[in-house]
Amino acid sequence: MPTAVIDTLDAAITRIGSPVCVGLDPVLGSLPAEVRARHHDPLAAIAEFTHAVVRGVAGIVPAVKFQSACFERYGSRGVAVLEESALEAARLGLVVIWDAKRGDIGTTSAHYAAAAKRLGAHFVTANGYLGRSGLTPFLEADLGIFVLVRTSNPDSDAIQNERLETGGTVAEMMAGHVRALGEGVRGVSGLSAVGAVVGATKAADAAALRKLMPDQVFLIPGYGAQGGTAADLKVMLRSDGRGILVTASRSVIYPKAGTDNWQRDIVVAAETLSREIAGVVR
What we know:
47% helix
């Protein structure tokens, strides 16, 4: 049952002491110069870098999130690197999120769910706008999901903040669906295997969304460089101080330019993020 994966995530957060997730968004032009110089094949450079990040952050953060597009652009070989890296992360005890924003009719979603299992993923980011049948195949495959509710990009307001004739916004309507879908898949932790993507830059809406989704874990992009603050995170917490997973990508995996030890810099950045967010939830 997917209840197992939400309890796995909750236990990992408790063990580490901080609800943080490092995003793996490898872009060739942003990789350390020495890695790029070592490989004529761009994908070989991305593979070396990704594996190094996974090994570096294991034991420092509870979870990693693989941006599927960064690997898929290289075709089947890129997907192979994604699979190898995600499986390594799972072996190292990290909770693995496949950030692929999948969601389709039920039959197609079942194929996506099978792909996620092949990757060793515990969670998948998902688009819920095709309805319940596009999401339940993931749960039936014992995966957790983070459904897009209030995303961090500014132009999301044009859709997600629109008010409905029946009251509330489009995002609030989706929050209601997320809560309903998640009712039957709570773990012993009391948290649901159906979570929600809620951007730190949308904190003005977060209090209302938390009331609508009391048992959901919020996967939170947009903290730090994009403008989200510690105060923004606090309004997203449950009363017991749980219910959030803050994700950061560029600030951790590309922390400095031109230093002599990029692996160490990534570890230090991950440790800094972990301590910072731990201070927010205490």
